[in-house]
Structure formats: structure tokens, C-alpha cells
Amino acid sequence: MRRVLALLAVLALPATPVVAQHADHAGHAAAIDPALAAAVADPLREKDRARDKYRKPDETLAFFQVAPTMKVGEYAPGGGWYSRLLGLYLGPKGKLVGLYFDPTTGAFSAEAQKGIREGAAKYPAEVAAWSGQPADRFAAYPLDAVPEREKGTFDRILVMRMMHNLLRWNIADHEIRRMRELLKPDGMIGIEQHRARPDAPFAFTDGSKGYLREADVIKFMEVNGFSFVGRSEANANAADPANWPEGVWTLPPSLSGAKDEADKARLRAIGESDRMTLLFRKRP
Questions:
Q1: Are strands 95-100 and 275-282 parallel, antiparallel or unpaired?
Q2: 157 pairs with which residues across the strands?
Q3: In this predicted structure, what is the pLDDT of residue 12?
Q4: Opening angle at CA 258, ends 242 and 159, nearest 5
Q5: Are 194 and 159 in contact (CB under 8 A)?
Q6: 3-state SS string over 265-282?
Q7: pLDDT digit string (tens) for 175-192?
Q8: Distance of CA 58 to the CA centre of its chain
Q9: Does residue 156 contact residue 146 with C-beta atoms inside 8 Å?
Q10: Among 31, 45, 226, 276, which is most exposed with the fewest C-beta within 10 angstroms?
Q11: What is the separation, in whole angstroms, between the first and last Cα of the chain?
Q12: Average of per-residue pLDDT values in the chain
């Protein structure tokens, strides 16, 4: 059914190239750049590799059409799982930029604002240490402090499992529009996000449970100046019912609220959340 819905959505779009060139009919990445495959397999990722089966980083980045010579922004890098891989992949020939929340939006306490700015300041050196690449291959800015010269220079920006927070904190429009300013005229945003069922009620899809409806994310991005390029099912998980009362954090890796080891084993057998993987192009 999901494939049928995906096909109907594509057919309803204007007669322009809307399916990513690196996707097959199922939306999976069709070809992996050898440099990306080498980065994914790098021994420096040994501790991160356990989550590859859930996060499919090679298929995801190939679907987002990330090339090793590009300037790529990673929004809200968090614990650095994707940063470590992107540092290996982009460090030799490209540029990786950590894009941090605008701390002045009103969503953050004074302590959180300080942490955001400190995180951005440390990011280049951290990614250099993780990847073994020179620190000048990396940069980072809170979105309120991006230099004017950076606008219109990014090939890609990646927003990984963060849209639910932007919506529940009521800063999504502001942050996405700031990111749009940074992209080149043909630049694209790749979004990976926990996916709710199409008929899920608003109370479950307002961001508070971690899950969003795919149609809502597409509409939101279109309203904010983007054209929908296509979707991938690389990060789909049909075993996730996406209806956990306590939200997505019930599943691995959080296992929040698990009663005992047997319960943890049951949740680990389900795996990480069902996720949409969507690509959008900056609209003129």
C-alpha cells in the first residue's frame, strides 16, 4: 500500500523530473559511490556500525545525492553519529558544516543557548579528531550567526530525525527558512523522520511523540519554499506499529519505559522506528 501511495503522490506532481536519479522504483538508492562505501566501511566507524542496519547511511546519502566534493550542512548534529561518517566522506574533497539551532528563537533557556554556541564552537575540532581530516575542512554555526558570505553556497542540508522537535518547539518555519537561505539555487534538503501512520490523529503527530505524517512534512516543506523531489523506503520498518503511547522513544536505542529484560528483547526485535526519507529542492 505504501508503494501505491508513493506512486500516486509522484503522479500528482507537475511533469518535471521529480524522482531522484539515484533511486529505483522502490525508492531505494540504486548505486553507492565507492568513496561513500569506503567511508561507511572505515575502521574508525567501528563503534557506530551497529546502527547501520537501521539507519542505512549508504543508501540514505546516495538517495540524497550527496557527492564527496559537495558543501553539506548537517542540522542539529547531536551526538555526532552522522557527523563522523560525513567527516570521513566529505573531509578529503568537500566541506561539512554543522548547523545548530538559532538559540534566540525563544525555545531555549539561557543555559541551553550557551550549550548551543559552545557545541558549534567545538564541532570542527571534534569532527577532525573523529575523522582524521584537517579541521579546516569543517565549520559550524548557530543559525543566528551564519556569516553573510555563506548564504547560497550549500549543495545539501541534512535534517535527520529532527523535524518533530522543530514542530513541537514551534520553530520549524524559522529554522527551515534560514536553511533555505543557505542553499544554492538548485540545492536540496534531505529529511529523515520517524513516520506516523497516514490516519494518525493530530495529538499523535504534533511532534510530541516523535512521529509525523509523511504528507504533512511534504506539505510543510512546499509551503516553505521547496519542491518535493522524491522518497526512499531505505529506512522503512514495517514492524513498527508507530502507535506507542510514550512515543518513538519506546523503541531502540532509547527503550524508554521497558519493564524488564524480556520487554527490552521484544522491542529490540522490532528494531528502530519506521522512517520516511524525503528529498526537497529549493524552489526559485
A1: unpaired
A2: 73, 189
A3: 41
A4: 45
A5: no
A6: HHHHHHCCCCEEEEEEEE
A7: 999 999 999 999 999 999
A8: 13
A9: no
A10: 31
A11: 33
A12: 91
